[in-house]
Amino acid sequence: MESLLERQRTYHEDIERLEQAIADRLSKESSKIKDRLSQEHDVAKFLDRIAEQSKKLLDIYTNKDKTQSINEILTASGSEFEEFYRQLKEIKDFHRRYPNEKVENFEELYKKRPEDEDEISKIFSGEESYGRFLDLNTLHEQWLNLKGVKYISYTKYLDFYDKFSSINSRIKNENYFKYLTNLESYLESFYKRINPLQDHNKIFSTIEADFNKEWDSGKLLESIVPTVNTGLIEDIFCDACNKNYSKKSVYDAHLMSKKHKKAEEARKSINKEGEMVNENSNEIQRHPKIDILKKRVISKKEYFIQRLSLLLNGEREATKRNVVRKQTLTDRERQAELEAAENEETVVEETKDEDRIWNPLKLPLGWDGKPIPYWLWKLHGLGVEYPCEICGNFIYMGRKAFDKHFMEWRHVHGLRCLGIQNSVLFKEITSIDDALALWEKLKLDKKNNDRLLESTIEMEDDQGNVMSEKVYNDLKNQGLL
Fold it and tell me: Tell me: the pLDDT tens digits for 252-271?
């Protein structure tokens, strides 16, 4: 039988091996999503193991099981050395009897093995793509199977699933509670899987404390009544006929029909016991304390789902974009994308501060995303401001950008608003008054040129009389020629 001292030594050794394994994992920075998640899950398992072994050690030191303490064991034979040699003799006798007994190697136990790399693939579905996207397809189908619910697409469901203020209390029955339980369980599991090193118990305890505080204040009880009509819930549902009605008048007419009366009688005459159960359940539902308790349980589920959705907002938005994009992909493209996702590199949060760009002079960024050299900024005169009144007092930095803007949409649109047709003559003109004055001058010059052109052209009639084109056309129109 293993002695208390040997168990104590084994626990200490195990903890030291675990700490070394954690250090080995964290010393290797992984840029791939799969490797990073595998690393974090390994560290989380090791931390749980350390907590478990530490608890056992604490029980030994505090003598929780009321057995002999370490000091009592050492002095049981009257002398510490005698007890030591006695235990040493027991160990030698054990190994003499079992010479081929295998020794547990803690160092090999916590080493990274090739088969461990596939463990991370088992905890995520293909749709989740190693925690980048949510997989709510099953929950979407479960929502559509609820009574009194209109069909909505999966994309719209991703926007709607935590908008509980728009849901009518009529559909909040047992099936709705099962749906909420499954949705909460999935979101909680997904958050744990993508954040294995977070203190999950602390986060969920905080959410529960916030819920209790808001429920006691009465805010959540008031928000149970639907205030927003999204059109996703049918207004009226007939249980006997299993049919939805969008208008009250149509539903009232349906209640008077023979078809509804027959269906109602058939439902009531199935068995009297079921009817008694329904009556008793209705009486229970009318009990105010039971009703409030049910509302509290459902509200707690809804509150947890909303808070978890806030924590997973980034993955939720990425899922919506991915669903819209995947609708245009073929099966081969989806498979190639899934393989590429395994090798996709992610930016580690700890390196954000190191990669922050130092740009105290507010220099423009180059093609590589870094500020251009100061001498290049000065050479191109990018510090000189060129305002343009026609562009709405927009300021252009540098002569090159200023010269280029005269043919761009902003300047052309400004001229059109002034009733001016853009041309090369308006280049270098940035003042509205100057542009209008030039436009008036151009119109006047064009009118004078047209008048001069008319006077320079001469026409001759049948009798040989020479006259200007205008006089000739006037006489011809009057029938004098």
Answer: 777 777 777 777 777 666 54
Convert the pLDDT of each residue in 468-477 to its tens digit. Answer: 888 888 888 8
Task: For residue 426, count other CB atoms closer than 10 A to its CB.
Answer: 20
Angle formed at CA 442 by CA 437 and CA 445, multiple of 5 degrees: 125
In whole angstroms, what is the distance from residue 21 CA to residue 105 CA?
Answer: 13
Query: Which of 63, 44, 56, 42 has the alpha carbon at shortest distance from 14?
Result: 56
CB atoms within 10 A of CB 151: 7
Whole-angstrom distance, CA of residue 319 vs CA of residue 313: 10
Q: Are 216 and 299 spatial neighbours (Cβ–Cβ below 8 Å)?
A: no
Q: Which residues contact 137 (CB under 8 A, 6 or more apart)?
A: 127, 154
Torsions phi, psi of 116, nearest 5? -70, -25
Are 110 and 200 found together in one domain? no
Q: Yes or no: say if 275 and 284 are a contact pair by the CB < 8 Å rule.
A: no
- Asked whether residue 106 falls in the same domain as residue 177, the answer is no
Q: Report d(CA 227, CA 465) in Å as an integer.
A: 92
Residue 349 lies in a domain: no
| Domain membership of residue 236 as a residue range | 137-325
Grade residue 345 by pLDDT with cuts at 50, 70 and 90.
low
